[in-house]
Write a structure and sequence with these properties.
Subcellular location: Membrane
Family: Belongs to the UPF0014 family.
InterPro entries: UPF0014_fam (IPR005226)
Membrane topology: Multi-pass membrane protein
Main location: membrane
Radius of gyration: 22 Å
Number of strands: 0
Number of domains: 2
Strand content: under 5%
Structural class: mainly alpha
């Protein structure tokens, strides 16, 4: 691998001047986004520096239990974040979402580490395990959140149709099938759009980072291809999983739609 340009803190500060330009534009046009820009910039610096120190410590210790512990924290935060992005709640939504994100992302990451990336020294090698899980979690979170939100909103909007189908003798699956199909398609749209334009319109961050660090372009492309497949698979599994679990909670065994269990969070959330 070729030598890469090592950034110093003053070079990072030089890049931050571009944010000052954005702030100036906001002031001139009276957009009132200066505070938001400042807050977002500070959070970017603090969060990324913090994760840099954490990863540096994890890489130096290189122990399986530390990697697993960090992965558990990342997964739990991803699951809870997926719920917070939904406007509707029902009893058990937290457990359903966390379980779906956890199972789908860990299953695909395990497949990646044990079956695809077999050249590593150890199965838990932090250099591969943490970035892979992070990318998979971020995209699975989006698919699960979008799919679940679409499903509950569609059920509420189409309540009369769903209950009419059930009254006419349809099973709960027959009544919910259309909203579930719509929710799965909606949850998959972001990753499908990304796959449609990757390499033509956009170069993903991972591939760009590898190219900048000096990796052979074809190797960087191969990595990006398998990453896109991992992400698409985990997103699909997570979305279908959370919709299946929510379907079991929102419809009774007697084929009744439990509409009263679907609630709207308080306005201040």
């Amino acid at each position: 691998m070729d030598h890469y340009v090592e950034l110093s803190y003053w070079q990072v500060a030089l890049a931050a001047l571009l944010i000052v330009v954005n702030g100036t534009i906001s002031v001139v046009l009276r957009l009132r986004m200066e505070r938001l820009l400042f807050l977002a910039s500070v959070r970017t610096v603090v969060q990324l520096l913090l994760v840099g120190f954490v990863l540096d410590w994890v890489f130096r210790w290189d122990r399986w239990y530390i990697v697993i512990g960090l992965a558990c924290v990342m997964t739990l935060i991803a699951g809870l974040t997926a719920v917070n992005r939904n406007a509707r709640r029902y009893p058990g939504v937290w457990l359903d979402t966390v379980l779906s994100v956890w199972a789908s992302s860990w299953l695909v990451t395990a497949f990646a580490l044990f079956a695809v990336l077999q050249g590593g020294e150890k199965w838990y090698q932090p250099q591969y395990a943490i970035p892979l899980l992070g990318m998979i979690l971020g995209n699975t979170l989006t698919g699960v959140s979008v799919g679940l939100n679409t499903f509950t909103e569609t059920l509420v909007a189409r309540r009369d149709r769903v209950e009419s189908l059930l009254a006419l003798g349809a099973t709960s699956w027959e009544a919910a099938r259309s909203p579930i199909q719509h929710a799965v398609r909606t949850g998959m749209i972001p990753i499908i759009n990304a796959m449609m334009v990757v390499g033509i319109v956009s170069l993903p961050g991972m591939m760009t980072g590898q190219l900048i660090s000096g990796m052979d372009p074809l190797q960087a492309v191969k990595y990006q291809i398998v990453i896109m497949f991992f992400i698409a698979s985990a997103t699909s599994l997570g979305t279908v999983s959370v919709l299946s679990l929510s379907f079991l909670r929102l419809f009774s065994r007697d084929h009744q739609f439990l509409f009263e269990t679907v609630s709207t969070p308080p306005p201040d959330r």
